[in-house]
């Protein structure tokens, strides 16, 4: 099963799509998301959602017919960036089904923006926060250092990596 991953870099940032992971269930998807998307860059939190629960729509596209059946639930909305690369969290809508959520998202979040939207039932999103795991912030490059015979550049890289690790630990509040 494929799970879409959204990363929040800092406390006041929005969640932005950062790729996906393959996992059999939500628990493993969370673990893989932390390993693949939370260890290199500063990360405050991650969201994972099953790819088949992410419904996309573009302005001018027909959202389909809503059945209107059942209670309204909260849907999380992501809007594609103007550069067209990533979808970023922009708000929520309350809707009875995907077609209803798409129609409401188009009305509330597109305006004159031609970029696509994604809607995801809030209940399908699994969150991982910095309270639960110790996210990275930089990549430890120690494994590279034994592979060189040119001592001076390697020593400079070792020092830079150690400084990055200290700074990342300080940013996380570890020191």
Can you walk me through this structure?
Helix content is 29%, strand content 28%. With 175 residues, the chain is α+β, with helices and mostly antiparallel strands. A 4-stranded antiparallel sheet has the order 2-1-3-8. A 4-stranded antiparallel sheet has the order 4-7-5-6, covered by helices on one side. A hairpin with a 7-residue loop joins strand 1 (2-8) and strand 2. The radius of gyration is 20 Å and the shape is elongated. The relative contact order is 0.17. The mean pLDDT is 87.
Summarize it:
The chain is α+β, with helices and mostly antiparallel strands and 175 residues long.
Tell me, briefly, the overall form: elongated
The largest sheet, given as strand count, sense and whether it forms a barrel, is:
4 strands, antiparallel
Number of helices: 4
Strand content: 25-35%
End-to-end Cα distance: 38 Å
Give me the count of strands.
8
Question: Which helices and strands occur, and which strands form pairs?
Answer:
Elements: E1 2-8, E2 16-22, H1 26-37, E3 45-50, E4 55-57, E5 73-80, E6 87-95, H2 98-109, E7 117-121, E8 126-129, H3 142-145, H4 151-172
Antiparallel strand pairs: 1-2, 1-3, 3-8, 4-7, 5-6, 5-7
């Amino acid at each position: 099963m494929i799970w879409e991953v959204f990363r929040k870099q800092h406390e006041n940032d929005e969640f932005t799509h950062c790729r996906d992971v393959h996992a059999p269930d939500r628990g493993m998807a969370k673990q893989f998301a932390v390993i693949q998307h939370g260890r290199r860059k500063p990360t405050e939190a991650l969201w994972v959602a099953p790819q088949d629960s992410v419904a996309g729509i573009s302005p001018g596209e027909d959202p389909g017919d809503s059945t209107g059946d059942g209670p309204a639930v909260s849907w999380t909305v992501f809007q594609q960036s103007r550069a067209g690369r990533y979808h970023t969290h922009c708000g929520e809508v309350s809707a009875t089904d995907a077609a209803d959520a798409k129609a409401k998202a188009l009305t509330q979040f597109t305006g004159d923006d031609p970029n696509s939207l994604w809607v995801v039932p809030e209940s399908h999103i699994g969150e991982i926060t910095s309270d639960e795991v110790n996210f990275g912030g930089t990549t430890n490059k120690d494994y590279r250092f034994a592979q060189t015979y040119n001592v001076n550049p390697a020593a400079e890289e070792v020092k830079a990596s150690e400084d990055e690790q200290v700074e990342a630990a300080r940013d996380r509040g570890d020191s």
